[in-house]
Each structure stands twice: as structure tokens, then as C-alpha cells.
Amino acid sequence: MAIDKRPSGKYRVRVFLDHVVVGTRSFERKADAQAWENEQYRVLSLGGIPSPSLSLLPVAGLIARFLNARQTRVSPHTWRTDSDNLRHVPSTWLRRPVSTITASDVHDLLAGLLAGGFARSTVTRMRVTLSALFEYAVSEHFAPANPVRSARMPVVVGLPSRPKADTWTPEEMSRTIAAQRLVDPAMAEVTEFLGLTGLRWSELRALRVEDVAQIPMPALHVWRAQSDGYAEKTLKSNSGEVRSRTIPLRPRALEIVAPRVEGVPPGAHLFRSKTGKQLRGNLFRRQVQWNATTCRGLTIHALRHFAISYWLLRGVDVKTAAEWSGHKNPTVLLSTYAHVLGIDANRAALALLDTPAVPALSWGAVPESLNGLD
């Protein structure tokens, strides 16, 4: 037998080539032994040489090595995201040898996360992290192949559709701004500016005075971002190119900006605290008493949803709204804000249904206006 159970309770695998043992390894679980044996014979069938040492490193050890190596290769924000995602690796994986993880294992993990209520976009990002983990394993010769490549995102029947972008109504926004002005007028303008421009919080924090343009029209040049607690970075595309966009400033947005640029050095942050320092999210929320002045538990990011929804409702075309908001693909914007575009269509359809019925032509006689026409 190629796999036999030893007195110790472990399962020993022997790999044969022309009746000669070319590899042997012991496992705690028979399933791991079978997976390893299958992989060694797959390598042999391709003309390769089986490498028993591939199975020595457990998944827990791989994760530790991967995160350590990753720290100098990606941004701190990406590293933290990867670290958080890898916490969802099941405990049953951690002691298993790296090379025994199969595409089926990966599929089951992703399907379980989806069924557990995680958003599909979040699980997709977890899959990206897992793929990077196993690509590292392959490059370091801890695994012969990346099992994530063969595991597509699962389709789980019965999952709720992608949630709509929740945000304020115009009336709720007006009440929010009014309430915040009573608490801190200067910080209330930050809320208002986010609702006018659709900026992400990290983008607003990174704005400099020099990013405000007057020619050919008042506008913002957005090309940097800085999340709270992280270093500033340029906005880049997937290919690594610096990505920037221009957002025209409406009159009210220009009123908010004007006193913040007058007599201020070009390199200074556009929005600053009362002490002249760069804004931080926790300080901003505290100064405007966010939980008391806002409604329905909405976040700062909901201000971005408000701006984009308002643009679409006022007739700004999808391509332009995508450019202003920084969506590289208008289809992504459409998938998030389709419900907004449907509002006017539904109203128009209802108005049509409520109009008096138009008398139909009599099919038994030819209308006078058509007499003489063949």
C-alpha cells in the first residue's frame, strides 16, 4: 500500500517510481496524506521530481513568513488589509502542510464566508490575499502550485444582492449641516464640502492649497490620499501609473475653499484643525458631535454617496460622474447607484400611468388623416 497507518496513528505515504520509493512523508490526517500523494504523482507525470520537503511548512508558518516579507513590498494599508483577511483562514488549515491545500479547500472557505454574511466585494479581496499568499509559497518552494488560481469565486444561491449606497436625503443633509453649524461652523463646512465634491475622507485629508485651480475654471486636482494613521500616497492605477482627476467646484464649494487658500502657502493642507494641523477623522467627528448631529448611523463615507447620487439625479451623465468620483469603470458606478437612476424613470412611468387614457384608433375604419395614402 502507498498509504499505511503506523502504530503511532500517523499515515505514512510512499511514492513509487518504477517500483522504487522516491519519496516518503507522514501525516496526522489521511486526507492530507492522500492530497500529498496525488500532488507527487502529478509532478512525476509532468516529468518532474517529487519534493517531500514541500510539505514540511504548515499554513500558520507560511502566513507568518508571508506577512513578514510583505511589509517591505506593499503599502502599510495593504499590509494591514492582508493581515486582517488572513485572520479568516480556518483553524483547521493552520497545522496542515501548505502543499495539501487544494482548490476545493479554497472554494469551501470563500463560499462559507459568503454564506456567513460577508459582502462579495470583501470576499473577493480575501481571495486576492489568499492568491498572493500561495504565490509566495510557490516562489519560495513551499508549494508546487497556487490552488487559488483554480478556485473561482463561488456562486451561493439565496444571498442578498449587493447593498445600495445608503446616504442622506437632501432634507436630512440640510438638517445635518444646520445642526453641525451650531456646534462648530468651520467643521460643518468640511461635512458640506464632502457632500458637494464626493471626495473620500483620505483624499480630503491629503488636499493641499496648490491643488485648488482657478483656470480655466475653479476646480480641485485630486491625486493624493492619506488615511488616518498611514503615510500619504499617490493615487495609482493597477498598472502603477499615477492616477489623478479634476472635480469642478460649484459656487458653494468655492465659498468654502476661498478663505482657506488666501494667504496660505501652496504646500499647506487645505483643510486644517483649529491649531493648523492636518485633520483626523476621530477629531473631526468629535468636533461636530457626529453621532448626535447625523442620522441613521451614517458614516463619513456616506457623504460621498450623497454627492454622486445628487449628480446623477440632477442629470450628470454616468461617464462624467465616474470621472469626478474617481471610478475608473463607469460600470462599477452604475452597479452601485442604479437605484438612483431608476427614481426619475419610475416617477415618469407613474405619471404616464396616471394621465387620462388616450382614445384608441378604431381599427374598423381608416382615420381621415391617412386617407389617400397607400
Order of helices and strands: EEEHHHHHHHHHEEEEEHHHHHH
Largest sheet, spatial ordering of strands: 1-2-3
Low-confidence stretches: 360-374
User: Distance between termini?
Assistant: 89 Å
CATH architecture annotation name of the largest domain: Orthogonal Bundle
Q: In percent, how helical is the residue content?
A: 40-55%
Shape: elongated
* CATH class type of the largest domain: Mainly Alpha
β content, as a range? 5-15%
Q: Give the overall pLDDT as a whole number.
A: 84
Radius of gyration: 30 Å
Tally the helices: what do you get? 15
Structural class: mainly alpha
Q: Sheet bearing the most strands, described?
A: 3 strands, antiparallel
As for the CATH topology of the largest domain, it is hpI Integrase, Chain A
| CATH-level-4 superfamily name of the largest domain | Intergrase catalytic core
Number of strand segments? 8
Count of discrete structural domains:
3
Produce a short descriptive summary.
The protein has 374 residues and is mostly helical.
Task: Describe the protein.
With 374 residues, the protein is mainly alpha-helical. The protein folds into 3 domains: 3-55, no CATH class; 59-150, DNA polymerase, domain 1, CATH 1.10.150; 170-351, Orthogonal Bundle (hpI Integrase, Chain A), CATH 1.10.443.10. Helices cover 47% and strands 9% of the residues. It contains 15 helices and 8 strands. It has helices at 30-45, 59-70, 76-86, 91-94, 103-115, 120-139, 170-183, 185-197, 201-206, 251-261, 281-287, 290-293, 301-313, 318-325, 330-354; strands at 3-5, 11-17, 20-27, 212-213, 219-222, 224-225, 233-234, 245-248. The strands form 3 sheets. The protein has a 3-stranded antiparallel beta sheet with strand order 1-2-3, with helices on one face. Helix 13 crosses helix 15 (330-354). The radius of gyration is 30 Å and the shape is elongated. The model is unreliable at 360-374 (pLDDT under 50).
